[in-house]
Amino acid sequence: MTAKSRIALVTGANRGIGRAVSERLHALGHRVVVAARDAAEAGRAAAELGPGARAAALDVTDEEAPERVRDLVGPVDIVVNNAGIQLDWGHPPLGVPTQLVRRQFEVNVLGAWRMCQVFLPGMVERGWGRVVMISSGTGAFSNGLSARTPGYSVSKTALNALTVLMATETRGTGVLVNAVNPGQVRTRMRPQAERLPEQAAEDIVWAATLPDDGPTGAFLRGRKQVPW
Fold it and tell me: What is the count of structural domains for the chain?
């Protein structure tokens, strides 16, 4: 397998940023696994991508789902942890319902953690891999955590910490693990944003296909490393 023909799995890939990332990876010649909670939506998205794409039903909150996907699709070289939710917009930190915080952590942090535990060991064993966490400026101390969406913000801070831990664990193995802040992107979460998913996908796919001397454990924005 050449560097131009990798197997890439994208979570939350049936729409928005995940769909745009899948399209870009497929256009570059990679074999894309379109993963989404709804099997029918994943299937439609994969069919629209065309030959070389396949679908997988994946709920990242299901403890056993990542292993089932691994058994279905086999070795994966690139994982883009894109699946994410925001449920607490407008709730102040002192008043946000903790069940909303818990649900966001379950998807945004533990979902990515499960994916890493299942797919990273194989990458290390094969000596090549790329993992990209889709983070947010609201989770960066350098940018300022957002009190308007506190649970989401703290979950993305935790995702950044997970990025560093996984990068440290795999450093020197040929695996690179980084987080990308795509900025505000026009999705169902941010319908009024000016930046299009296709624009964000360019930066994310760049991080997913870094050369072997690329950064690991980094927070990236616009293809540049920025402070956590």
Answer: 1
